[in-house]
Amino acid sequence: MGMQVNTNISALNSYRNLSNTQNDLAKSLEKLSSGLRINHAADDAAGLAISQGLQSQVGGLTVASRNAQDGISVIQTAEGSLSEVQTILQRVRDLAVQSGNDSNNADSRAAISTEVTALGAELT
């Protein structure tokens, strides 16, 4: 007695097409739910590599921006210090001109000298 194998080619093709459609639907739902165009490397390998490169650049630029802001803060602090030094030196200059005036007595000159000494100490 011979063995007979029955296959239903139409049913197998329909099943294969249904499976493919379900897989495509699952991929589409995953993309929709995540909001990403590339969820896996298999979706677009070149696009994933480009995306990762751009993400690295964004990270580097963020750090560079933060470093620039820190540099600006340091410069602003130095500017404030230099402004204070300029004010002190201007006062020392004014006192030097004032001490050269012949109308000052010894007490006035001593007070000017004391103030100049204090200003010099403030600079160091």
Notes on the protein architecture:
The chain contains three helices and no strands. It has a domain at 9-43. 80% of the residues lie in helices and 0% in strands. The protein is mostly helical and 124 residues long. It has helices at 9-34, 45-99, 106-123.
Key structural traits:
rod-shaped; 124 residues; 80% helix
Please give the structural blueprint:
Blueprint (H helix, E strand, L loop, with lengths): L8 H26 L10 H55 L6 H18 L1
Helix pairs in contact: 2-3
Outline of this structure?
With 124 residues, the chain is mainly α. 80% of the residues lie in helices and 0% in strands.
Order of helices and strands: HHH
Name the overall outline.
Answer: rod-shaped
- Largest sheet descriptor: none
Q: Label the structural class.
A: mainly alpha
